[in-house]
Amino acid sequence: MSRETDDLELRERPEIEEDLEDFALSEDYSLNPDYVPMVVDALDRGDADRLRELLGALHPADIADLMGFLSADDREELVPHLDPEALAEILAELDTEIREDVLEHVPSAILAKALGEMDSDDAADVVDDLEADKRAQVMAALPETERAAIETTLAYEDETAGRLMQREVVAAPQFWTVGQTIDHLRRESEELPELFFDVYVVDPAYKPVGAAPVSHLLRAQRDTSLAAIMEQITEIPVDMDQEEVAYIFDKYHLISAPVIEPGGRLVGQITVDDIVGVIQEETEEDILALAGVSDAGRDASFLGVVRSRLPWLLINLVTEAIAVTVIAPFQPMIAKIVALVLLMPIVSSVGGNAGTQALTVAVRAIASKELNAANAARIITRELSVGLLNGTAVGLILGGGLYLWQHDLKLSLVVLLAIIANLFVAALGGILAPIILDRLGRDPAVSSSVVVTFMTDFFGFLALLGIAALILL
Amino acid sequence: MSRETDDLELRERPEIEEDLEDFALSEDYSLNPDYVPMVVDALDRGDADRLRELLGALHPADIADLMGFLSADDREELVPHLDPEALAEILAELDTEIREDVLEHVPSAILAKALGEMDSDDAADVVDDLEADKRAQVMAALPETERAAIETTLAYEDETAGRLMQREVVAAPQFWTVGQTIDHLRRESEELPELFFDVYVVDPAYKPVGAAPVSHLLRAQRDTSLAAIMEQITEIPVDMDQEEVAYIFDKYHLISAPVIEPGGRLVGQITVDDIVGVIQEETEEDILALAGVSDAGRDASFLGVVRSRLPWLLINLVTEAIAVTVIAPFQPMIAKIVALVLLMPIVSSVGGNAGTQALTVAVRAIASKELNAANAARIITRELSVGLLNGTAVGLILGGGLYLWQHDLKLSLVVLLAIIANLFVAALGGILAPIILDRLGRDPAVSSSVVVTFMTDFFGFLALLGIAALILL
Fold first, then answer.
1. Which of B302, B310, B457 is nearest residue A393 as measured by Cβ atoms?
2. Which structural domains are found in chain B, ordered by start?
């Protein structure tokens, strides 16, 4: 596919800087695939000027994107050409496994400088990716305050509010007026976070009692008190799981929220742009888990990909090997009625399909907290009824088709009953497996598929062959 | 499961308002399942006072959530108890199918009042859900300006930037100073959107040339010109697909972005909180499509659920019926070597699994624009190598296990070769089907599964039985 780009030389090549910027991105703002070989070409020729030009036309997020399309070797060659200021932004954007790879090729001193430019949460993420040796070197090269901030952030558990938050917040006492607050902000301009959306109003113990959105500060009269314009806040405990944090942001349409310590003291804030990443990450995890893949990441090595998939294939091999044992006692019957050999895969496949449908819907409903004790009975009843009706519909069609072909009413009846039974089992497994796994505190996305596929294969074969034995023999 | 809540009467029931608020939400801020039967009970008793108390303790987003847990009948009874101001917020939060149901029970006059309280994008969404008769009534009851705003929004295609944006924006000319801008905002306070994050800087033709984040306005000195503090903007064309808009927001960590008409004029803005919903919606679509379910929504009726699943089951039935035809010519051999009957489902199941893994990863990579012409050749090569290696590993384990049981070296060899062949086909289909479907302009999530499952079943049976015929007969 990348061969298509070989004739690039024949097309007009954009040379002027403005043209380059236009050329770099496709209409949908994704990186233009044709841009990648231009960078690779400059790397191959060791043309530092051309590289500076090419990289200069890109936003750091696009350079991060570009790195994802390069081979590991090309990426390694590119790193020294990155200017140290851009490096901070690029590191914050990169996927973990590419970042780990890039970090190996950045000297500790330059890395320390880049970390100094980053928000505390992003800097901590990068440090967390470093190997022990390098981490010690880099931390030693950091100024005391930044080192302390990173260490504090890293002390919180991964995937919690503490790791997600930035420690930089703007807070003001309740009794201040809008005018006092704006004057303070103008004075302290240098110390403020680059962007903020709320001024948190705190009591004398530094506990947040409300938030004044900056757009309200801007339009209020100078003598209005903060207490008069502040809004209710939703406090995020520092140890809350990031998935819960994302749920709260989504539900209440929050732009930012204060993070508090167990005692209630304000320690940081989370902003919605961090949440967008979390939502992507969490649903991605669900999608992959449902397909039986561990997340190997965008640029996983060949062995990384094997490791992310082989275990699931082996689990599937074992459960399927157990499921087919149910066929063994029926072998003599199958040798006599060979049409059953064609029907077995159909019954198990349709059952597996129906089970996947039910469990996917259930897993998502649980993840978005739309399925719980309050409506479980109603949803389970609905799923089982759907299973029976779909089973009847599919069974009648398959049985009918079979009759036109074989003119064997009994065989058609066997198929009809087997499909109904298996789609009922599929519905039962598809809805109950995720609910039960969730109650047991397991992630329903991870193991539901294995359970349900086993059920629909085992019972599919058993239903078809058992009913055949009863009716046909 | 909901039976668990029957003993609620025995527990202490929170009566005081503050207690109710605490009781209403679980620790993770989701609605407490025990709250639902309390509402149902008050509905059954027709106790309007108690209902007002119960609903008063909830945020509108939680009332919307509550409605999802109620049966259609209970919901219908609840609607008249909702106060008209809260109704606007609740309607904006409800899932489409519940909203359609609720809208039927709200009188047109009350609805028109509620629409007046909503942002233009939310109001248009609600109007779009109304049936023709009611829509005409409601629109007639709206003030002229609001009706016009809703009509303009509805003129944009569904799922585009135009439908997502709010028409309310704050714009200022380039030559204004920070002080002039703040004074203007204070004067026009009544006319401004409730929340905003950027003041768009526009040229005389009302084309946006930059954006001043409100936090920068707050801390800049009054005599600074807007041109000096404004930042680069990413303009969103009004007809851009919402999926692209979400991609841009995610990539550049945008909080808000100006929406422009074809001529370049500023017509509205999109804010990141709208994008969180879009991202949820789009990944949800992918998850469901991969599982072969159309989105029936949280509260779909029994028949709605059947409609969302049966067509996919029937497609699966047809493709599977075609796949098994490959078995027919081998029936005499199967009657002789019945062990093949046990091996067929294993070979096809492991193949299906490997295909699902590969295609899920590919579909996600395409959706997040991480797979395109620039790296397709590398990714395809990687997938095929993974298929061969995983096939060899699984084949050796299955073949080895089979040998321990049957002591038939030739049969084990057949299984080994069949698994390698099928996992190679799975890798080929899993990576090529989504890429080709995407090139053809189809959604790769929707039909890839069908194609790949067909391939792994067809070739799985063919490989096993064909190789068996060559080696064993």
1. B310
2. 2-159 (1.25.60.10), 171-289 (3.10.580.10), 302-472 (1.10.357.20)
| Long-range pairs of B326-331 with CB within 8 A, sequence gap ≥ 24 | B326/B458, B326/B461, B326/B462, B326/B465, B327/A341, B327/A342, B327/A345, B327/B461, B327/B465, B328/A342, B330/B465, B330/B468, B330/B469, B331/A338, B331/A341
pLDDT of residue B1: 37
User: Are the Cβ atoms of B349 and A286 closer than 8 angstroms?
Assistant: no
Residue A71, helix vs strand vs coil: coil
Residue A384 has pLDDT above 80, yes or no: yes
Least confident of A14-18, A112-116, A332-336: A14-18
- Tell me which residue in A30, A35, A353 faces B312 most closely, judged by beta carbons: A353
- Per-residue pLDDT tens digits for A459-471: 999 999 999 999 9
Torsion B432-B433-B438-B443 (CA) sign: negative
Would an 8 Å CB–CB cutoff place A397 in contact with chain B? yes
Rounded to whole angstroms, the Cα distance separating B377 from B357 reads 19
Contacts of A116 (CB under 8 A, 6+ apart): A88, A142, A143, A146
> Could you tell me if B260 and B208 are in contact, meaning their C-beta atoms sit under 8 angstroms apart?
yes
pLDDT of residue B105: 86
User: In what order do the strands lie in the sheet containing B256-260?
Assistant: B236-237, B256-260, B266-271
DSSP letter for B57, please: T
B333 touches A at CB < 8 Å: no
Tell the burial category of B188 from Cβ atoms under 10 Å away from its Cβ (0-12, 13-18, 19+): exposed
Q: What is the pLDDT of residues B334-364, one digit of tens each?
A: 988 888 999 999 999 999 999 999 999 999 9
End-to-end CA distance of chain B: 57
| CA nearest to A251 within chain B | B61
Task: Answer for the pair B213, B196: CB distance below 8 angstroms, yes or no.
Answer: no
State the Cα–Cα distance between residues B50 and B80, nearest whole angstrom: 14
> At B231, phi and psi to the nearest 5?
-115, 165
Per the CB < 8 Å rule, is B252 touching A283? Answer: no
Which chain A residue's Cα is nearest to B419?
A317
C-alpha closest to that of B344 among A151, A307, A455, A348: A348
Per-residue pLDDT tens digits for B213-269: 999 998 889 999 999 999 999 999 999 999 999 999 988 989 999 999 999 999 999
Contact flag A374-B37 (C-beta cutoff 8 Å): yes
Quick: pLDDT tens for B434-456: 999 999 999 899 889 999 999 99
Q: How far apart are CA A436 and CA A424, in angstroms?
A: 18
Q: What is the pLDDT of residues B9-49, one digit of tens each?
A: 444 455 555 688 889 988 878 899 999 999 999 999 999 99
Instruction: Tell me if chain B has a CB within 8 Å of the CB of A235.
Output: no
Spell out the residues 6+ positions from residue A374 whose beta carbon is closer than 8 angstroms to its own. Answer: B2, B5, B31, B33, B34, B35, B36, B37, B69
Q: Give residue B237's pLDDT.
A: 95
Question: Which residue, B170, B461, B438, B188, is CA-closest to B327?
Answer: B461
Indicate the length of chain B as a whole number.
Answer: 473
> Is residue B235 helix, strand or coil?
coil
State pLDDT tens for residues B134-192: 899 999 999 898 899 899 999 999 899 999 998 889 999 999 999 999 999 989 888 88
* Interface contact A264, partner B, CB < 8 A: no
Q: Where are the alpha helices (DSSP H) in B1-59?
A: 17-24, 35-45, 48-56
Residues pairing with B202 in the sheet: B173, B208
Q: What is the pLDDT of residue A473?
A: 83
Q: HSE on the CB side for B316, CA within 13 Å? A: 27
Question: Mean pLDDT over residues A129-144, rounded?
Answer: 90
Q: What mean pLDDT comes out for the span B322-336?
A: 93
Its sign, for the CA torsion B115, B118, B121, B126, is negative
Q: Could you give the 3-state DSSP secondary structure of residue A112?
A: helix
